Amino acid sequence: MKTSANFSKASIEFLKKASRQKRDTWLDRNRDDYEKLIRTPLTHLAETVFEELRSLAPDYHFPRKGLGRMKRPSNWVQEGGGIYKSWMSYSAARPRTSRFENNPNLYFMIDGDDDDDPVLVAGGLYMPSSQQLRKLREAIAYDASAFDELFATKEFSKRFKGGFSRDKTAKRPPRGFDPNHERIDWLKLQAFFVWRPYTIREFTSSSFARLVAHDFKLILKMNRLMEKVLSGKTMAVSPKPKRAKFRLEELEIVAPRPMDF
Description:
By secondary structure, the protein is of the alpha+beta class. The protein is built from 10 helices and 4 strands; from the N terminus they run H-H-H-H-E-E-E-H-H-H-H-E-H-H.
């Protein structure tokens, strides 16, 4: 009998149950449920995302192997954590070129410990370095219209209302920026990302993998804007900067040099 590639409510319950286990033989005894509820649908999602986005993001690494690892690192277990994770995630991004900086990513997560929003999609920069944070703030202080334009589009505003999440915001304006700037709400952000939860109905639908791929495509547009800023391809900030606003229609995709992942 062919195993379904769909997630189910039991997928969330499986993660909850796994996090409470004290013996590392539990997963072996529940291997069939693990394959059916976690690994098979997660692999299907990864394959769908790869097929849908590889032409749009040839410079991104879309993992398709080694997915669904349940065991937590041994040092986490020694510090008092459980043997198995209560969550499962998937992330795609451009390969890192620095040990100290991440690139904007596409992110999917199932969290068995979150009863309110157990399934979500997200993307952007959740943990930017101080240098990345400075570059993004300077670009926004100079001209935030490219982000405004994207966030105002019908599709993006429907899926990610309000644009950047306010979940990580500084209490005070950052040093060197005008506290009365019209975009001070964005300048106070400590991370630049968007996210939205999925309903259980969406999560258990046969079209869920394509829904995630659709949302990833929207987030990719935001990531491309941030990648331009971080690579220095936008305007240079100076006392009398030359007007050089970039627009959404300028975000052409250029095939990169071959990379070893």
